[in-house]
Write a structure and sequence with these properties.
Distance between the termini: 34 Å
Helix content: under 10%
Low-confidence stretches: 1-63, 286-319
Strand content: 25-35%
Number of helices: 3
Length: 319
């Protein structure tokens, strides 16, 4: 498979700014999993796949509620993402239903109702909205060739507001890859603000992190269209300079295929984010977070994991 070779040229470096330890929480991790995957019925009630939850809940280590490791927000953050459940805007890829539970590690892992969870990630060929001329490394079609009518400033970005159980749900696609990073989704958790003009305003950022995908799942997906049109060497988890090998507490998603024999049908992804609602961590400028882009040194002033030919961020973007 041409798009799926282990990158042996990148030395693993751990650029993690760890922000905390653990607080015991008994069975709350499994309870959070059950809440996140509860399916609404037509009468508004919910049902829970208890057997699936018991088998698959590997959320924070050993059934404990863990304060998540914060990392850099990376070079592709943009302010003003929309509050919405479906962030695809027609971008093609393997469907991903992402359920996130936000827990308060300072209050016996209770849910953080009203938290605003923001995610953003690249498309199937490694392009981010707002930075669509940035070279994702390897050989990929131009972003404009995907045939979608997605807004090139807003696709694959969005907020959701946590319900009473601390749960948010997104409909998106599994990201592709860009050099020198593994497959990942960026995430921020905000509190204290409010929805205004279709986005989220005010408050503060309590957590900035990244969510990661098992290598075997990524490999099976990158063999499929449209991912397979992006060829070259991508970075596995072991060689990524942001993922530190800590499993769920470091952002590794629990993934369930919609159809076990057909990965193109999509996946359900789950994770619990343990945060301190009194803390503030924007992720801007924290940690190295990168490596050398495909063609050499990054543009002056750009974060070190930005691929080559990255455009200057707009005025609302964070470096």
């Amino acid at each position: 498979m041409t798009g799926n070779h282990r990158n042996t040229t990148i030395t693993r470096r751990r650029a993690i700014a760890v922000t905390g330890g653990t607080v015991a929480a008994g069975g709350l991790a499994v309870t959070g999993y059950q809440s996140a995957f509860a399916d609404e019925t037509t009468d508004g009630t919910t049902t829970t796949a208890t057997d699936t939850a018991s088998a698959s809940a590997t959320s924070t280590s050993g059934g404990q509620c863990v304060l998540m490791s914060s990392v850099t927000e990376g070079p592709y953050y943009l302010d003003g993402a929309l509050v919405r459940k479906n962030i695809t805007e027609g971008k093609d890829g393997v469907p991903l239903t992402l359920r996130i539970v936000v827990q308060d590690t300072t209050e016996s892992c209770g849910p953080v109702a009203g938290a605003a969870v923001e995610i953003w990630h690249c498309d199937a060929w490694g392009y981010y909205s707002g930075y669509t001329t940035a070279n994702p490394g390897g050989s990929a079609p131009a972003e404009s060739e995907d045939g979608s009518d997605a807004n090139d400033q807003t696709y694959l970005r969005g907020y959701q507001i946590a319900n009473a159980n601390g749960v948010v749900k997104f409909e998106t696609i599994i990201p592709g890859w860009y050099t020198p990073r593994t497959c990942h989704i960026h995430v921020k958790v905000h509190t204290g603000g409010e929805k205004e003009d279709g986005t989220y305003e005010g408050g503060k950022v309590n957590f900035t992190g990244q969510l990661f995908f098992d290598d075997e799942v990524a490999e099976s997906i990158f063999e499929l269209e449209p991912y397979s049109k992006h060829t070259g060497s991508y970075t596995t988890l072991d060689d990524d300079m942001v993922y530190d090998g800590g499993g769920a507490s470091s952002g590794l998603l629990t993934l369930e295929p919609v159809h076990k024999k057909d990965p193109s049908k999509g996946y359900k992804g789950y994770i619990t984010l343990g945060i301190d609602p009194d803390a503030e961590n924007t992720g801007a400028g924290s940690g190295d977070g990168g490596g050398t882009p495909p063609s050499g040194e990054p543009p002056s002033g750009a974060p070190s994991d930005a691929p080559s030919d990255a455009p200057s961020p707009s005025a609302s973007a964070s470096s």
